[in-house]
Amino acid sequence: MAKGKDICKTLKRIRKEVADANEIVYEPEECHYEGDCEGTCPRCEQDVRYIEQQLEHRRVLGKAVTIAGIGVGIAALSSCNIFQVKGKMEPVIKPPVLEGDVENVDTVKPEPVSTSAKARLTNSGTEQEEAQTMVVKSDTIKEDMLLGDVIEDMPVFPGGTEGLLQFMTDNVEYPKDAQKLKKEGRVIITFIVEKDGSISDPKVVKSVYPSLDAEALRVVGLMPKWKPGMREGEPIRVKYSIPVVFKL
Amino acid sequence: MLIAPLIGLSRHRIGVDGKGVTTLVAFHGCPLSCAYCLNSQCLRSDGMWREVTTQELLEEVAIDNLYFQATGGGICFGGGEPCLRSTFIKEFAKKMPPQWSITVETSLNVARSHLERLLPIVGMWIVDVKDMNPDIYKKYTQKDNVRVVENLSWLLQHDDMASRIMVRLPLIPDYNTPDDVQRSRQKLEAMGVTQFDEFTYKIR
């Protein structure tokens, strides 16, 4: 079995264990993607955020929350099944500028084959998932509030996910120098959707090539105002991540 | 706010960097020049991927907080030589949720002051000694291993350290032999090391 799929299954079991231990209703959907993956995908990330939100709800309600150690056995078993390989190598880390097979905060999903030298958001049939928030933070960055803050309504680009895809397709130009050098890959940009819907603090969190990074940043900077995220009826700042795929 | 150069991050590593689910944070920069270095970009001046502050790194890796806490995992710092970034790691550790564990994958060929800084916060030390024979070590890394042996001995003097140290003992094609590996193992066992990971370097 492919390594990525094994990781995915292990992580799914850990999520299920945590959910069950905290009386959270969670039935992970069966993954029908047949190729290998990187062990996670936007759908999986969405499930993690859901469980974190439910855990936070329980905390707010004064209920006990149990996480520590819930998945120790699963992880240990999986490491025996998957990774007990003699003759293993040192951990291989490649900078994304070379191969891109080591991911950072990106939630990786399978990519469709592109037929044009045009940048786009990945859209392998689940664009809405791809564009979901991958990191959720409160409007005040405090260490104890980094995780699982409850957001009732996520920020929305004008026209929704389709509008976002169209906007990126319309505005992103493949830099000529990158085309000449056959540079391609997925640039991940994070930014804050402010309370008034404006975009701030755009950053490249996964770099591919300087001109590709710059182009992705440029287009994010052109975005119109979003509908901000909401909590308890009040607009809040939300960190959002989008992938911009450059494929020749 | 401290900044450190990275060559990569790798999420969802299970059982390869210590307990549980871990994220590997690989630093740029290494004191060694290993012949078969798999991450040679950590030695090149243009090999850096990006720089991060401790806060930025925390915000990125926190996406897997649920998995870390549920499995007793956390962050594995590698590289490159992570111990050279001891101040950064210490600042990061102060910010991170206390339930996360910290592992370092190190050559231990660094100044003692780095280890003193890291000792209270590192849960697991994965030490790649290459080979305990000084000549083999020097031939393979271009450096002496005196400091490695001294630092390992120093670490082992602390309480309960044998259970927190895993020594990697590679069979290095063209540099050492299975007999050399066993000789290294005997020396290490005499020093008090109890956990080993023997494997063979694969050459690309």
> Quick one: how many beta strands of chain A?
5
Order of helices and strands of chain A: HHHHHHEEHEEE
The chain pair with the largest interface is: A-B, 58 and 48 residues
Number of helices in the DSSP assignment of chain A = 7
- How would you write the strand order of the largest sheet of chain B? 3-1-2-4-5-6-7-8
Sheet/helix structural class of chain A: alpha+beta
Number of helices of chain B: 7
Secondary structure: helix percent of chain A: 25-40%
Report the CATH superfamily of chain B.
Aldolase class I
| CATH topology title of the largest domain in chain A | TolA/TonB C-terminal domain
Q: Roughly how many Å is the radius of gyration of chain B?
A: 16 Å
CATH class term of the largest domain in chain A: Alpha Beta
Low-confidence stretches of chain A: 80-150
Q: Architecture of the largest domain in chain A, CATH level 2?
A: 2-Layer Sandwich
**Main sheet characteristics of chain A:** 3 strands, antiparallel
What count of structural domains of chain B?
A: 1
Average the pLDDT over all residues of chain A and give the rounded result: 69
Mean pLDDT of chain B: 94
CATH superfamily of the largest domain in chain A: TonB
Give a written overview of the molecule:
Chain A has seven helices and five strands. Chain A has 248 residues and is α+β, with helices and mostly antiparallel strands. The longest helix of chain A has 19 residues, at 3-21. The radius of gyration of chain A is 19 Å and the shape is flat. Residues 80-150 of chain A have low confidence and may be disordered. Chain B has one domain: TIM Barrel. Chain B is α/β, with parallel strands linked by helices and 204 residues long. In chain B, 32% of the residues lie in helices and 25% in strands. Chain B has an eight-stranded mixed sheet with strand order 3-1-2-4-5-6-7-8. Classes of the chains: A alpha+beta (248), B alpha/beta (204). At the A-B interface, helix 1, helix 2 and helix 3 of A face strand 1, strand 2, helix 1 and helix 2 of B.
